[in-house]
Design a protein that fits this description.
Layout (H helix, E strand, L loop, with lengths): L1 H19 L2 H16 L4 H7 L2 H15 L2 H14 L8 H10 L4 H17 L7 H5 L7 H21 L4 H10 L3 H7 L21 H15 L6 H9 L4 H7 L3 H21 L8 H8 L11 H10 L3 H16 E5 L6 H9 L14 E7 L5 E2 L12 H16 L11 E6 L7 H7 L7 H4 L4 E10 L1 H7 L14 E9 L20 E5 L9 E3 H8 L3 E2 L15 H11 L28 E3 L7 H10 L2 E6 L6 H8 L3 E6 L2 H19 L14 H38 L39 H17 L1
Parallel strand pairs: 1-12, 2-4, 2-11, 3-9, 5-7, 11-12
Antiparallel strand pairs: 4-6, 5-6, 8-10
The protein binds a DNA duplex through loops.
Length: 775
DNA sequence: TCGAACATATGGTAATGGCA
DNA sequence: TGCCATTACCATATGTTCGA
């Protein structure tokens, strides 16, 4: 009630002042007249409001505070938004604030801004007169003012004395100049608005700059009260802003970390020349932040968060969203009709326009034909179509967005286009674009500055077999265990030689692999109905036989029969193939709820990790984001990622995938995003156990493989033909497939027959379990 | 009876590759 | 490097079957 009448008085003060715009007049009649006019209802109000003390306070506040436009705006805005519950409702409060700031306008602006910001964010409840006037644990104003001091020191002497990239410095100063710029450029008050703000400029930043940004935000601009206790302690001990930052946890550790990162970055630049064959580890550290470099443990934060009643889950979500908004950009292709339309959508994101010269790695433009689209019929067997017009549109758009021209006949140094060809033989669809590459004659490509390389990626035979269910095993060399990968890049691009991440050899060789293709059932799956929405026009009719593409004119039926007869094993009914429908024949039409892999021919993430490592990737523009697993990997490793999805549905799907991964990464000590204060203790524990289990499994597997090899050798020596007949193997296998987690195997010994991959065995096991469960 | 949803055949276009 | 037969891709046409 008190605040209500105070507010009214105050409002009258400035309405009067604003209309008159003459302070002298306000002193005299005007104020009294106003009071008389409006005070008819309540005599008590009238009496209190006309008290000389109150009027004096009003006039003081008006003079010292409200004559200044920015200050007045904040107070008026607060009042407009929150009416009586505004934190500034109360003339004495404002007076007290003036006193605290010693009438300094910029201090007042900061204080009002901070208060209003926190109030809007819902993390400031008690901002009463008593709170302002007395020191204590709930005192906010002094804390805010101390935070201002800290901010000034950080943006001034701290930045000046650090060897940060100048571009980052100026951006930091721009963003943290005021509350306004902070909410407009980085962190809006309303969470939904975050989408409208492009913060992807962070993605090009070195870790030191990112940590500085984090420090600035948490120390001076944060809306939650995480480190308020520390600041209060500093105030109590009479510390200045600088001392507070340099002497108190967690700021002290953050600054140390920033300095360590700066040192490392400098060293990396100096060592860059030295990065030659063999030393994969230091190179990796350049681009991918050291997992152990995650934020230092701050249990006090957690306690305080709990004490404040903040919901950890929502905090975690908000944090994950922040990370994603910094590193992930998605656009859908289908709803942008022209290359120009798509380009202007892409142009909005800094991440697309990133300058390769300022990066500590290369910009990789990835295209995986396996994930371009999907054959309408028999997608598991037919290769995905490539729609040249859409492809051209996408590349033209990237060109337009990045350099203003749709052509790709010249590339910037540092740009690398990687294309995995998906097992096709005509490789000219991209060569045409660059004017260089397979399918373009030497004469035509003469004079171009673009170079290209061909790398063969290989897959383990077992994993290929597990996917190609209908292939006759008799057909010679029909099971393709390799795909070609092409790299196009400007001659000036720096691609240091380094060891492959997941396979033997270095990127000086033209071979990469072998990788293990996941079985159908391990791929991310979605309902069939959703798939149609997801792919949109990328679902296209693809001609050709469904057998397997081999020229042998015997059909699938023959193959199947033959296989069933000969081996009794590799057969659709036994390998759990996702339901693909089979027309109106013997089977039913697919229900929209039937689960299918989102992308049938998706490559394992390890392949792309290897490719990104081999090309020293710092940023990724993905033309075929597929199920979003590469996106998730990139975000979890703090690499910028731009995904050009097919449709809006596709975008949403990828976003969901990345969100899940990021949330998991927050609780995973092995991840670069690990945040101890936000970690879900249960998941954290599980993650630790999982790593341990995997290590043990690996050991066991190695031992088993050795044993199997030994046994096979023995069998061979005996001259026994154990290769063809193997109906027995259904009962074998320990189903210890990594990742699938079906630990229901009977734990049988590794049989001497054939030696199926653990993944295949797991699939068989699963299928068997399903049969027994349903039947 | 007709449309939906699939399978399958066909032919135009462009790339490929052998050869001179 | 140019010619030309062959091959690959894939849009389109046609066929098949079910259920409303």
């Amino acid at each position: 009630m008190i605040s209500a009448w105070l507010r009214r008085v105050r409002k009258e003060v400035y309405t009067g002042a604003l209309s008159a715009d003459d302070v002298a007049a306000l002193y005299g009649k005007n104020l009294i007249q106003v009071n008389r006019r409006s005070g008819g209802g309540n005599s008590q109000d009238d009496k209190d409001r006309t008290k000389p003390g109150t009027i004096k306070a009003c006039i003081q506040v008006y003079e010292r505070m409200l004559t200044h436009e920015p200050l007045r705006r904040i107070v008026l805005n607060a009042e407009q938004d929150f009416l009586d519950s505004s934190p500034f409702a109360g003339v004495y409060k404002l007076q007290e604030m003036c006193r605290l700031c010693k009438d300094n306008v910029s201090k007042l602006e900061w204080l009002l801004g901070a208060t209003y910001h926190r109030f809007r964010a819902g993390t400031l409840h008690d901002f009463s007169m008593r709170n302002l006037a007395t020191a204590g644990t709930k005192q906010h104003a002094l804390v805010f003012l101390k935070q201002r001091e800290m901010k000034l020191w950080l943006l001034g002497p701290f930045l000046d004395s650090r060897n940060l990239v100048s571009e980052c410095k100026s951006k930091l100063r721009e963003v943290f100049a005021s509350r306004d710029s902070f909410t407009k450029l980085l962190r809006p008050v309303e969470e939904e608005e975050q989408e409208n703000i492009d913060v992807s400029w962070q993605a090009t930043w070195p870790k030191s700059a990112l940590l500085t940004l984090e420090l600035l935000e948490t120390s001076a601009f944060s809306v939650d009260a995480t480190d308020e206790g520390t600041v209060r302690l500093g105030i109590k001990n009479g510390k200045s802003g600088q001392e507070l930052l340099e002497e108190y946890s967690p700021f002290k550790e953050k600054i140390q970390e920033i300095d360590a990162c700066l040192k490392e970055e400098l060293k990396a630049i100096n060592d860059a020349a030295k990065s030659q064959a063999g030393d994969a580890e230091p190179d990796q550290a350049q681009n991918i932040p050291n997992p152990s470099g995650a934020a230092p443990s701050r249990t006090s934060d957690l306690d305080e968060a709990m004490a404040e009643g903040m919901d950890l889950e929502s905090k975690r979500l908000a944090y994950a969203r922040r990370i994603m908004s910094s590193y992930l950009v998605l656009e859908s292709e289908e709803d942008k009709k022209t290359a120009g339309g798509l380009a202007s959508a892409l142009k909005k994101h800094k991440l697309v326009q990133v300058e390769t010269a300022s990066m500590s790695g290369n910009l990789i433009i990835v295209m995986d034909v396996n994930g371009w689209g999907e054959a309408i019929t028999a997608p598991h067997i037919r290769r995905p179509p490539i729609q040249q017009t859409i492809l051209n549109k996408v590349f033209e758009a990237i060109g337009l967005a990045r350099r203003g021209s749709s052509g790709w006949k010249t590339m910037a140094p540092g740009e690398i286009v990687i294309c995995l060809i998906g097992g096709r033989t005509n490789n000219s669809f991209l060569s045409k674009l660059f004017g260089v590459g397979p399918g373009v004659g030497r004469s035509k490509s003469r004079g171009s500055n673009i170079m290209w390389r061909e790398i063969t990626t290989t897959f383990t035979p077992e994993s290929v077999q597990a996917r190609r269910v209908r292939t006759s095993r008799k057909a010679l060399a029909s099971l393709k265990c390799s795909q070609k990968m092409f790299w196009w890049f400007d001659a000036g691009t720096d691609i240091p030689v380094k060891s492959h991440k997941h396979c033997q050899g270095t990127n000086a060789f033209d071979l990469m692999g072998p990788f293990t293709l996941e079985p159908w059932k391990s791929l991310p799956s979605i309902p069939y109905g959703d798939k149609k929405l997801l792919w949109g026009k990328r679902r296209a009719a693809v001609g050709g036989k469904t057998t397997t593409g081999e020229t042998d004119d015997e059909g699938a039926a023959y193959d199947k029969d033959e296989i069933a007869e000969e081996t009794g094993a590799v057969d659709e009914e036994e390998i759990e193939l996702p339901d693909v429908g089979s027309g109106r024949g013997s089977h039913k039409t697919l229900a929209p709820t039937v689960l299918q892999p989102a992308v049938y021919h998706e490559m394992p993430v390890t392949l792309w990790e290897s490719a990104m490592h081999a090309t020293s990737a710092a940023h990724i523009i993905d033309v075929t984001p597929g199920s979003g697993r590469l996106a998730a990997w990139a975000v979890c490793n703090r690499l910028g990622y731009v995904g050009i999805a097919c449709t809006q549905h596709h975008m949403e799907y990828i976003e969901k995938t990345v969100m899940t991964e990021v949330l998991a990464a927050l609780s995973n000590p092995g991840s670069g995003l690990y945040a101890p204060t936000l970690a879900d203790k249960n998941i954290e524990q599980k993650a630790k156990e999982e790593t341990k289990r995997k290590e043990e499994e690996e050991k066991k597997k190695k031992a088993e493989a050795a044993a199997a090899a030994k046994k096979r050798k023995e069998n061979e020596n005996q001259g026994g033909q154990t290769e063809t007949k193997k109906p027995k193997k259904k009962d074998e296998g320990s189903a210890a497939a990594a990742g699938t987690g079906t630990g229901t195997g009977a734990g049988g010994s590794q049989g001497g027959a054939g030696g199926l991959s653990p993944a295949l065995q797991a699939m068989l096991e699963k299928a068997k379990n399903k049969d027994t469960a349903s039947g």
